[in-house]
Amino acid sequence: MNSRFGHLQININKGNLPYYRDLFAFLEWPTVYEGDGMLGVGGKVDDSLWFLEVANGASNDYDGAGVNHIGIAVSTQAEVDQAVAYLAGKGIESLFETPRHRPDFASSETETYYQVMFKSPDNILFEIVYTGPKQ
Length: 135
Description:
This protein is of the alpha/beta class. The chain has two helices and eight strands. 17% of the residues lie in helices and 38% in strands.
């Protein structure tokens, strides 16, 4: 079977659509659809994230069963720092003492795992991460 990741639907409060539109525009993900309380942003190989209006009042608990966070990979450590500046400019708090290097997640002593973590207004946890040679 030749399978790959296709898409992920994320339920949000409709009023927060501009947050996701701005975030993914900053991350240079193209908008593939916008309308009717829905935003679709595309990745690099026909993969996509879809933000849709919630159907009920249940809340997200990223430490409970289900998805913990959405990781967005970038090409350089400097891009993580650019994301930190973007988030700070929007008043979005970095979580878990990030940005920081995580040697416990690096594949070798010459590699790094450098991340920033934050949550959206809908309590969705995101990570922007660089993995690769120390820079």
